[in-house]
Design goal:
heterodimer; A: mainly alpha; three-stranded mixed beta sheet; B: mainly beta; OB fold (Dihydrolipoamide Acetyltransferase, E2P); six-stranded mixed beta sheet; 1 helix
């Protein structure tokens, strides 16, 4: 391909609003402190605590303060300006709604429905990993959380697969592959939301444009699990008496409808609040009408026993008195779903603030000038830079949503300068974000599943330490993750799926 | 856009050097400033937009331009600004 000249001749951008001792690069200090903190915390120490990252970002913002030339007030104002941007508010709203929806589906025994599907198909151990990949992908696409899928499937389906004779390493990898699929594709997935919102694209449009990559990778992954399943043997289990049927509940599959409501209304271009609210109402109605969960599973007020008013209201299905060793609280799927996102919401607001400091301090422009001047000189090299850059950041910051938020502004500017449209940029951004958090032994998604697996030694009588899969051995078999990365390297190289701004403009971001 | 057309949009292999014809109206982000004119890089094709007083203010903004000329061999051309699309910049 013809090499076009670099943009060295392009005139310098305007002087920065914020000046730092150490020049433009010093404006990157807040984000740099955060990245180092994140690598140390999650990569080196293996502590996957999002609230710990919040403190890391706060320390970074304070560190940057000491390098500001002139008034510190401008720096402080920039933090406020960053946090009040629409991109942050949109992500917050999307996460709160998505969190409630996902938890109502889990309370409604969706996973037990999938277990029933696995049981009724009656597949043997050698084909079980391939089936598990499909079912885990379905769950993850419905609830939008790959971590949740990894934990749930490892807890419920993994032991059953071992009993059927599936190879443990391959089976665990198949679960992680399903988690990657859903994390990448689900409209209520946190990474999907970040990818769309940061690239100024509607979430429904992003999901529908993503199918052409995700399904190609999934077909290859499915075939790979069939082949590997036939060639990798299972392990001997003694003393087991459980079977899939014990945890199966066909009725849980009704939530395929709840999922369908969200996906179809999202793709039709409805607002996120509207699309997920409809899905939420459908799921709650299904739970209550079909007896999948009680009203208290969805929302409950656990009141102090000594309050006389509370004791008179216990006839309400959502009010009960706290037991002697129980804390007074609000609970249920709606509560847990929304509250679960609080740490990530705070982290996002702070990272967006740090990114704004880097933009106003000129550090962002300096990196872009370098990349566009010497690395990303053609559209093909730019897309490869976007793919590999996202892979690198996600390979090191293993809490993948945090990594995605940090690199998103670069993807927007790099791709935007070559007029790649919002859908294409969002897809490049999310593929590696979803894939790499589940492949390497230090990946957050893999560790979430691994944690669930180690707890099986206590909860499942026949499950011994020797059956726990070593996380270091899993990486070659997370086929969907690898194929997704490969599809995007191929797409960047060949132009598969590439769309320019003038080909199709993404709809505005406040629409789903 | 219908569900199916949204799913099938963009399937295929898109060139790195899209072509334009004189009279085409094209929406794009301004990639930079070159020789005092706003430069649109659309893939590896380039459109220079003339007649803007201070093009540096438009970098990363979304603009609508009308193509006046385009050379298929060098993948470069000239265009004039029609309007700036407010609020949808990078």
């Amino acid at each position: 391909m013809e090499e076009t000249e670099s943009l060295d001749a392009i005139e310098e951008s305007e002087p920065p609003d914020l000046e730092f001792y150490g020049g433009r690069a010093a404006s990157a200090i807040p984000l740099a402190v955060f990245v180092v903190w994140a690598i140390f915390q999650s990569g080196v120490l293996g502590v996957g605590d999002t609230q710990g990252l919040v403190v890391g970002m706060l320390v970074g913002l304070i560190a940057g303060l000491f390098l500001v030339k002139g008034s510190w007030k401008d720096y402080a104002d920039t933090i406020f300006d960053g946090m009040t941007q629409r991109v942050a508010a949109t992500a917050v709203v999307a996460w709160l709604w998505a969190g409630m929806f996902a938890n109502v589906l889990q309370a409604g025994q969706f996973v037990n429905g999938l277990v029933w599907a696995a049981d009724v198909t009656g597949v043997a151990g050698d084909l079980f990993p391939a089936l598990t990949f499909v079912l885990a992908a379905l769950l993850a696409t419905g609830i939008g959380t790959g971590y949740g899928t990894a934990i749930t499937f490892t807890t419920v389906v993994f032991p059953a697969g071992i009993l059927l004779g599936a190879n443990p390493t391959l089976l665990f990898a198949a679960i992680l592959s399903g988690a990657v699929f859903g994390d990448n594709l689900a409209p209520v997935s946190d990474t999907t939301i970040v990818s769309a919102v940061t690239q100024d694209a509607d979430i429904g449009g992003v999901v529908s444009s993503r199918l052409k990559y995700a399904l190609v990778a999934a077909v290859f992954a499915f075939v790979a699990y069939v082949i590997a399943g036939l060639s990798m043997s299972g392990i001997e289990v003694t003393g087991a008496g459980t079977s899939l049927a014990e945890q199966a509940n066909a009725v849980g599959l009704v939530h395929l409808v709840s999922m369908g409501v969200v996906i179809v209304t999202a793709i039709q271009g409805r607002h996120i609040v509207e699309a997920v609210s409809w899905g939420l109402l459908t799921a709650i109605a299904a739970n209550l009408l079909l007896g999948l969960s009680s009203l208290a599973d969805i929302l409950v007020f656990v009141a102090p026993a000594e309050t006389s008013l509370a004791s008179e209201l216990t006839w309400l299905p959502i009010v009960r008195l706290a037991g002697s060793d129980e804390s007074v609280a609000v609970g249920g799927a709606l509560y847990n779903g929304a509250v679960g996102f609080f740490p990530l919401i705070v982290l996002t607001l702070l990272i967006v603030a740090a990114a704004e400091i880097m933009i106003r301090g000129g550090g962002f422009e300096a990196i872009l000038d370098f990349l566009i001047g010497s690395v990303a000189t053609t559209v093909r090299r730019t897309e490869l830079t976007m793919v590999l850059g996202t892979a690198l950041v996600n390979g090191t910051i293993t809490i993948n949503t945090a990594a995605e938020i940090a690199i998103a502004p670069y993807i927007a500017r790099l791709g935007g300068r070559f007029n790649l449209n919002g859908y294409r940029r969002a897809n490049i951004l999310d593929a590696n974000t979803s894939a790499l958090g589940y492949i390497f032994p230090w990946g957050g998604g893999l560790l979430a599943g691994y944690g669930a697996m180690t707890s099986l030694t206590e909860s499942v009588p026949w499950f011994t330490e020797s059956m726990v899969v070593n996380p270091v051995t899993v990486w070659p078999y997370v086929f969907h993750g690898w194929f997704l990365v490969a599809v995007f390297v191929f797409a960047a190289w060949t132009g598969y799926g590439r769309e320019y701004v003038h080909d199709r403009q993404s709809a505005e971001v406040e629409r789903v | 856009m219908s569900f199916l057309s949204a799913v099938f949009a963009g399937i295929g292999f898109r060139t790195a050097t899209p072509s334009f014809a004189p009279g085409d109206e094209v929406t794009a982000f301004v990639s930079g400033v070159q020789n005092g004119e706003a430069l649109l890089r659309i893939g590896d094709s380039r459109l220079s937009v003339s007649g803007i007083d201070d093009p540096s203010t438009l970098v990363d903004e979304r603009v609508l331009v009308r193509v006046e000329s385009f050379d298929e061999t060098t993948h470069t051309g000239g265009a004039v600004l029609v309007e700036v699309v407010d609020g949808r910049g990078l």
